Input
Amino acid sequence: MTGRILVVDDQRANVEMLAGVLAARGYEVLTALDGESALEQVRQGNPDLVVSDILMPQMDGYELCRRLRAEPATTLLPVILVTSLDPLQERVNGIDAGADDFLSKPVNWEELFARVRSLLRIKRLQDEVK
Output
């Protein structure tokens, strides 16, 4: 199962690491270092899934998620939020912002891959229905 995944994090090392492991699994990976760049990548790159850090300057992952949900073209685009903050509170905040899933840092790679597969499967079914 392949798909195009946008990885968003203001820390270049985190973006490169996550993009590398996803690309090694056969996914096409787009990257962005901030929320505004992520929105532009979504418009131009048409990803199937967004994996975004929460803590970023200017536009955090919550706001990125809210903006994606506000646009008809991306209202159903799956979003996974990732953070090193308190998982329980961040999960609630992420769900309120419209996130589809949530991962805590350090990321468990097998859990990430399983969640990516699941959300891409749902996205394909939604696309077929459209």
Observations:
- The radius of gyration is 13 Å.
- The beta strands are 4-8, 28-32, 49-53, 79-83, 101-104.
- The first strand starts at residue 4 and ends at 8.
- The chain has a mean pLDDT of 92.
